[in-house]
Design brief:
The protein is mostly helical. The longest helix is centred in the middle third of the chain and has 22 residues. The protein has 9 helices and no strands.
Length: 181
């Protein structure tokens, strides 16, 4: 595996931070590559050597967070439901600027779709329609209910500046989801 130059990593990080800051201040449609370049203190060529355009930057930024959450989910497979959810809420809290910006900005519908797809995929393993209280119900409907509920809670929590700590959110979400699986 090739090692990426630290200067490249530093530039990418500056570009991502600048982009998120700009998205929190103005509409995604109004942001230009020059705006990102100026805010990140890098040349436009540096941006174009890493990203095709601002849409690619947004896509890769969202993808990075979804992948990190996927890895978190996979690492918690042996954990108690509530402890596992706490790690997710901790992750969201530690990346508050990203999540609050995505939920408030014009990029929100794209982020919402990506996040919901991720949640549906992750919850698939937890839904049992062959036995128990969900026997005979439609798996797709159950997954949509779970994913949109989880997304809604995250959205509410972030937009309200996280009024409860991650462990409280995890406990409530874990108990409610577990009771309905």
């Amino acid at each position: 595996m090739s090692k990426v130059d630290r200067r490249i990593l530093k530039s990418r990080e500056a570009i991502k931070k600048a982009f998120i800051a700009l998205m929190s201040e103005q509409s995604f449609d109004n942001i230009t590559i020059q705006d990102i370049s100026n805010r990140a203190n890098v040349g436009r060529g540096t941006i174009y050597s890493n990203y095709i355009d601002k849409f690619d930057l947004l896509d890769k930024l969202i993808g990075e967070h979804i992948n990190e959450m996927r890895e978190l989910y996979e690492s918690t497979s042996d954990m108690d439901e509530i402890d596992a959810k706490e790690l997710w809420f901790d992750y969201i809290k530690s990346n508050y600027v990203f999540f609050s910006t995505m939920l408030e900005s014009k990029g929100a519908p794209y982020f919402r779709n990506q996040f919901l797809e991720f949640l549906v995929e992750e919850f698939k393993d937890e839904v049992d329609i062959k036995t128990g209280k969900n026997q005979g119900l439609n798996e797709e409907v159950i997954l949509q209910i779970m994913a949109t509920s989880y997304y809604g809670v995250v959205e509410w929590w972030v937009k309200n500046e996280m009024p409860y700590p991650p462990y409280v959110m995890a406990e409530h979400v874990g108990v409610l989801l577990e009771g309905n699986l």
